[in-house]
Structure prediction request, 192 residues.
Amino acid sequence: MSLWELLLLAVGLSMDAFAVSICKGLAMKRANLKGALTCGVWFGGFQALMPLIGFFLGAMFATAIEAFDHWVAFGLLALIGANMLKEAFERKEECEECGCADLSVKTMFVMAVATSIDALAVGVSLAMAGDVNIWLAIALIGTVTCLLSALGVKVGSVFGARFEKKAQLAGGVILILIGLKILLEHLGILTL
Prediction:
């Protein structure tokens, strides 16, 4: 995968954390640097850790499913993307679910795990995709998520929930398109 594809993947994966960070910003009386960094570090850290775990799990089974690994990668990314799209249309009062302005270790741990489960599956997809520098991938995913989560706190405190649904929609579309590109490349339909 190219640097641009990895960057797009990082942005797509970070949209759940970004949406929850917007919610955190909405619930805070005044968004501050500590709150933004707390969200950024928790979400960015877990978004980097989960694909790494998924990559190594996927690499263990890569030879066994080599003949159809591109279908697995496409299926996982399309499923995650479709779920993000579905969640964007079903969202009602997300801020009630996300723990409001609570930045305790327990709350942030649960939220960081919840928003990064899809990154575990993406890590498996990266192992199936083939030529991927996993260290560059997790560095980009973690950094982009950290920055966008910190920004999300500020966006939430200033603009409200206006961008939450759009972030979910964009993330879903990006993941589906990356999965489709992997599939089309492996089938020889797309050559870049």
User: Anything to note?
Assistant: The mean pLDDT is 82. DSSP finds seven helices and no strands in the chain. The helical segments are 3-27, 33-61, 69-90, 94-97, 105-129, 134-159, 164-186. The radius of gyration is 16 Å.
